[in-house]
Amino acid sequence: MRIEVKHLSYTYHSSAPFSAYALQDINLTIEEGEFFGIIGHTGSGKSTFVQHLNALIKLPTAEKKFKPKKVRKGQPAPVYPSIRIGTYDLGDKKTDFKELRSKVGIVFQYPEYQLFAETVALDVAFGLRNFSKTPLSQEETEEKVKEAIEAVGLDYHAVKDASPFDLSGGQKRRVAIAGVIVTKPEILILDEPAAGLDPLGKREIMELLHRLHASWCKTVIIVSHDMDEISENCTRAAVFSASRLKFCMPPSELFLHAEELETLGLDIPVTAKIQRELQKLGVEVHSDFTNEDFVRRVLERVGGTSC
Amino acid sequence: MKAVNFENVAFSYREEDEFSLKNVSFSVEEGEFVAVLGHNGSGKSTLARLTNGLLHLTGGKITVFGTDVSDEKNLFEIRKKVGIVFQNPDNQTVASIVEDDIAFGPENIGVAREEIARRVDWALDAVGMTEYKQRMVSSLSGGQKQRVAIAGVLALKPQIMILDESTAMLDPKGRREIMDVVKKLNREEGMTILLITHFMEEALAADRAIVMNRGEIVMRGTPEEIFERHEELETYNLALPRIGVLCEMLKKGGMPVRYVLTPEELAKEIAACASK
Q1: What is the pLDDT of residue A272?
Q2: Is B117 within 8 Å of chain A by CB?
Q3: DSSP annotation of B71
Q4: Considering the domain boundaries, does residue B235 fall inside one?
Q5: Is B94 on the interface with A (CB under 8 A)?
Q6: B152 and B178 together in one domain
Q7: Is B270 near chain A, with CB under 8 Å?
Q8: Residue B164 host element (H or E)
């Protein structure tokens, strides 16, 4: 499913004196199959954007009370924000939003704090039961839950009857992800999936997301402010700042704008920093900022075994 | 002189429990900077708390500058010599104003008033926080709060400072601030440092490192020697940070770079190779 966002603006407390823009005229397309990154500070609008993608925040035209503005002759018709995800029109009141939400799964930050059920299997099954249109049989539920738990790299028989609260931090996070992917969403959105983990934990989570991307969810979108994570993993990344979309391009191009990113108060990946320092020392190296390409280019430029 | 000496130390929290530390022997020389690496639950914090008698050992012997830690009569003296900075910046302040907080320790051990004032100024200068002297602790960033916590320990004029995951809750900038202060204290003041961490890049600043796993010391050496054995490290749930991964990949490609901490240093290493 392709995500197509046009003229998306959003104002918090629009009728109150403290109204504030959270998003201003965002235009963005995310193709099916991408591993997409969303970057931005707290308050940049990135969370508001993500919440629109599974209609946690509805477009004005999808609200029950919505009536189109009357247009006088000679005046241009008003432009309403629109979001299309595959065949779903998020601006249409008649859209089946429940079905949409089972196709666009969101894993929030620190999802392990949202576990609640008595056993891992019951926790993972919760979303499945709520989203399915017809009641599922015991066997069907068990089969799907098993599949999801195994997809996140846990041993089904070892954890299914355990309390989610007895698991380690890393395992809890995996269970929480299983609870979202169990409905087989085509698009999986994760807010800071690696936050608070040490280097090994981070690497394991990113490897898991790549496995899911290859076999389970066609599109993966991660919200992150770890630029190393973005440069190593994403096909393209969007940068939000002060409610606007500033950049949307592959990391290999994005991090060429190092100075602008730093003025926005954002970091750049380690590889970009090393390249910049090398340039000061008179050694020009240009890579796409992934480890592999960076090392290859450095060895090409400087020579490996020769020195 | 040996600042800290552990001899076959064993510890368990309760008698019936498994040992949290088993057969741990190592020593730290005066003025040395030693890093203790280990994953959560490896026993590295237990080790810190045993050193100044916050926990009492089950077996073996610990001495601090030759004084036995297990003798309760010595604890007051030992705690003056060994300061610990803990993990959470919000749990280590007692006063609302920076200078009052730093004065709390020396006041408690009966330091004279004028001397306290001198120590507070010196400690604030050492951590680069002089201009924040009159500020509210609550208005500071995490990194600044931790620097105040370090200053509070410094004001007691300890000979050994233990940092028990003191950077774990800070952002990268805060972590750099703390590491800069620690390095400076070690080099300029000759303070003995025991740095407990699971961030491998922080260990690079140390003279020596030991790696703990399941309550035992499993690796010892210079940080570089330990990083060379990164595959073994992964079996103890430790992994190289991205810059370490890059160093490793360049080495494999035949470039003789040293393991370094920052992008600036790695750029210099690469440029040095380019000019040969």
Answers
A1: 95
A2: no
A3: S
A4: no
A5: no
A6: yes
A7: yes
A8: strand B160-164
- Dihedral angle at the C-alpha atoms of B146, B152, B158, B160, nearest 10 degrees? -10
| Interface predicted TM-score (ipTM) | 0.78
Which amino acid is it at A138?
Q
Same domain, B97 and B125: yes
Judging contacts by C-beta atoms under 8 Å, the chain A residues touching residue B243 are 270
Tokens of A116: 């609640």
Chain B interface includes A294 (CB < 8 A): yes
Task: Choose among A199, A232, A281: nearest Cβ to B267.
Answer: A281
- Measuring CA to CA, which residue among A298, A267, A270, A305 is closest to residue A284? A298
User: Which run of H or of E encompasses B59?
Assistant: strand B59-64
Tens-digit pLDDT profile for residues B10-24: 999 887 778 889 999
Taking CA–CA distances from A169, the nearest residue in chain B reads B40
The domain containing residue B276 runs over which residues? 241-276
* B166 touches B193 (CB < 8 A): no
What are the structure tokens assigned to A53, written together?
A: 């993608």
**Subunit contact B263:A273, Cβ cutoff 8 A:** yes
Q: Is B236 within the bounds of a domain?
A: no
Do B98 and B44 share a structural domain?
Answer: yes
Residue of B nearest to A300 (CA): B253
Is any Cβ of chain B less than 8 angstroms from the Cβ of A84?
Answer: no
pLDDT at A28: 95
Tokens read off for A115: 């576990």
Nearest to A299 among B200, B243, B253 (CB): B253
Domains and CATH numbers, chain A: 3-268 (3.40.50.300), 269-302 (no CATH)
Residues 6+ apart with CB under 8 A from A129: A136, A141
